[in-house]
Amino acid sequence: MTQVLVIAEHAHGKLNAATAKCVTAASSLAGAEIVVAVFAVPGSPVAAQAAQIAGVARVLEVAHAANEHALAATIAPQVAEVAAPFSHVFGPSTTFGKDLMPRVAALLDTAQISDVMSIESATRFRRPIYAGNAITTVEAAAGAKIVATIRIASFEAAAGAGTAKIEVISPQAALPTHTKFVELVAAGGDRPDLQSASKVISGGRALASADAFKIIYGLADKIGAAVGASRAAVDAGYVPSDMQVGQTGKIIAPELYIAIGISGAIQHLTGIKDARTIVAINKDAEAPIFEVADIGIVGDLFTIVPELEKLIDASRK
Ligand SMILES: Cc1cc2nc3c(=O)[nH]c(=O)nc-3n(C[C@H](O)[C@H](O)[C@H](O)COP(=O)(O)OP(=O)(O)OC[C@H]3O[C@@H](n4cnc5c(N)ncnc54)[C@H](O)[C@@H]3O)c2cc1C
Q: What angle do CA 86, 114, 250 make, to 5 degrees?
């Protein structure tokens, strides 16, 4: 039987939707038995949430005080230990997964398959290359343990009606002491997570300063959207790099994507091509973003965004 271990991503006691997307990916392996591993502190509510994902056979709650903060250096040896009986180990291609999974692959002495967007068989996977402009098929050696990151923009989250059993285990692996948690500086604060949010609003170079970028946060807060940015906005220091959307940033697939003052360079579009509806606000009617936008608004963002806010407020009265 194909035994798949899915590494859960979570923060502040809440399971990230990326985990249910990895479960969907795993379920496309014929005859897969899917086990979710939750690396958490004892008593964390996350395992119970993972147990509700449909299609999950078991949840392993790997309880260790060191798992209070998700540090790749300390979680990787635990994953390598837990992974022993599994043929496949999947993690999300989020910041968390990209940090953790290569270490897991190295500890298991295997090569990682990155950004899996579809699964053809237990050893054959499809993944994007050249910024998503070409798709390659990758064949892993038969018999090797497969460690992969799953491109979460390519999979819907599995439903939440499961009732998997939870097994609490204590890792025996020696954990490194050279890495310790100091501080978490979260780019988005309390806002929805950029990679799993259903609505995302991004700002570009047109915002011209970190202070002016606040207009994007204001609109995002009104509709409960996550906030992203173009690379130009990141490079100019208006926002942290964790917020970059695109080829060298985050690949996202929200229901609604609003690009404000973003030209629509190919490297940016690579990150948003799976978005369901794209809205663009740009003062240049010839901007390439309008070629991919479902709804385009031509005009000055500093006029249009406040007008949109007023319309939202009025519609809620
Ligand atoms: C290898 C490589 C990787 C890259 N990876 C990424 C990536 O991951 N993500 C990414 O975004 N880019 C990436 N880039 C950079 C990309 O090529 C563009 O330079 C970048 O996306 C441009 O950002 P921008 O649209 O904010 O800025 P600009 O291209 O300068 O566009 C600003 C837009 O704002 C409009 N505007 C100006 N003022 C206003 C106003 N007041 N109201 C309304 N509209 C206004 C302008 O008409 C213009 O269209 C990469 C480039 C390379 C070479």
A: 125
Taking the model in full, what pTM does it have? 0.82
**Which residues have any ligand 1 atom within 6 Å of their CB?**
204-206, 230-233, 244-249, 261-263, 265, 267-268, 271, 281-284, 287, 300-302
The per-type count for the chain, helices as H runs and strands as E runs, is: 9, 17
Contacts of residue 291, Cβ cutoff 8 Å, sequence gap at least 6:
264
pLDDT digits 0-9 by tens, 31-55: 999 999 999 999 899 999 999 999 9
Give me ligand 1 centre to Cα 12, in Å: 33
* Best residue among 245, 252, 268, 308 to mutate for probing ligand 1, ranked by most atoms within 8 Å of CB: 268
DSSP state of 295: E
C-alpha angle 84-87-90 in degrees, rounded to nearest 5: 95
Predicted confidence (pLDDT) per residue in 96-113, tens digit: 999 999 999 999 999 999
The atom number, within ligand 1, closest to the CA of 233 reads 26
Strand (E) or helix (H) holding 16: none
Three-class secondary structure assignment of 190-255: CCCCCCCCCEEEEECHHHCCCCCCHHHHHHHHHHCCEEEECHHHHHCCCCCHHHEECCCCECCCCC
Q: Whose CA is nearest to atom 34 of ligand 1?
A: 261
Cβ-count burial of 205 within 10 angstroms (0-12 exposed, 13-18 middle, 19+ buried)? middle
DSSP bridge partners of 89: 5, 147
